[in-house]
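Materials and Methods. Structural model of Trichome birefringence-like N-terminal domain-containing protein. The 356-residue sequence of Trichome birefringence-like N-terminal domain-containing protein from Olea europaea subsp. europaea was retrieved and submitted for structure prediction as follows.
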Amino acid sequence: MDFVFKTLFLSLIFLFSLQANADFNATASAEGKLVGRCNIFRGKWVFDASYPLYDFSTCPFIEDEFNCGRYKRPDKMYLKYRWQPFSCNLPRFNGVKFLEKWRGKKIMFVGDSLSSNMWQSLSCMIHSWVPKARTTLIRREGLAELVFLDYGLKLLLYRTQYLVDLERQKVGRVLKLDSIRNGDAWRGMDMLIFNSWHWWTHNGRSKPWDYMEDGGKLYKDTNRLIAYYKGLTTWARWINRNIDPLKTKVFFQGISPTHYEGKDWSEPSKSCNGERLPFSGFKYPAATPFSTIVVNKVLSRINKPVYLLDITLLSQYRKDAHPTYYSLHRGLDCSHWCLPGLPDTWNELLYAATFG
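The predicted structure was written out as C-alpha cells:
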C-alpha cells in the first residue's frame, strides 16, 4: 500500500504542477499560435456554402475509416463550416501554390491514425486542384508515400503510436520511454508534422504493450500522463539533436479531442452520435486537456523552433464532425474525423503557418 500511495501522491503532484504552469506554458509556446499578430487558433465556426474543399467521390486517397460519404452519412451540414479567426482571415488553400512552394521536397506526417486523418486530408486538398496530375501511392507496413510526380513532391506518412520505440523482448512488448531509434526514418525531410496521444490512454486488449521501460527499469504500468511527458521529452531531445531549422520545418499537430461524453459540452446523456451542429457557446465547458498542458510544457523546453498547431479548442467545438457509425468499422467512432471535414481545417492552418 505504501507503493500505491506514493505513486498516487507523485501523480497528483505532477498534475498539479502542470495545471499551475498551464498559462505560462501556453504563453511560452505562443510562437506556434501566431501568423503575423493574429492568433489563428482562436475564433469561431461559420457557415460557408463553398465548403467542402473537395468531394469524397473524386478523391482516391480517403480510406474507409474516414469516408463518411461513402458510408451514407445522411446529413451534410458538418461539411459546410469554415474556421474564422477573430482577428484575421485565413488564406484560402491553393493546392498549386502549395505544390510549387514544396516542389521537389519531402513532407512527412509522423504519428497515429490522427496523423493519417490529416495526411489523407492534405492529399485530397492538393488533388482537388490538380485532378489530372500524375501520382504514385506506395503503402508498406508502417509507411505510406504519395508522390505528385509532375512536381516531385512526396507526402509521407510514418505510423507510430507513441513516437518512442515499442519493441518485442523476451518479457513481452516493451514501450521504451527513453528510446527513439525510429527517428532514423524521419531524417532528410523538409517538413515534419508530429502527433501522439491517442494510444497513451489505451487499456485492456487495445493496449499494445506489456511493460514500460524507463532508465533500464521495467514497469507494468504507471500514470499515463507522466509516461506521455517522459516520451515527449525523449522526442524533444531527438529534435534538439537532429533537426537543422534551416533545412527542416517542424510542427506538432496538437491534441485531437474525443466526444464520447456529452458532459464535455454540458449534455451528459449524449455522445457524438446524432450531433449535427458544432458547439456554439462562447466557452467550451470541458477544461483544457492535461495532455495539451503536457505538450505545451515540453515544447516550451525545446531549443529548436517547433510550431504548435493548436487545434484542440477549435476541434472540441466540432462534436458533429466524427464518423460515428458511418465508416468501415461500424462501431461508434467519436475519436476520428470524417473526410472531407475537420482535418481540412487543420491543413488550412498548416497552410497559413507555412505561407503566413
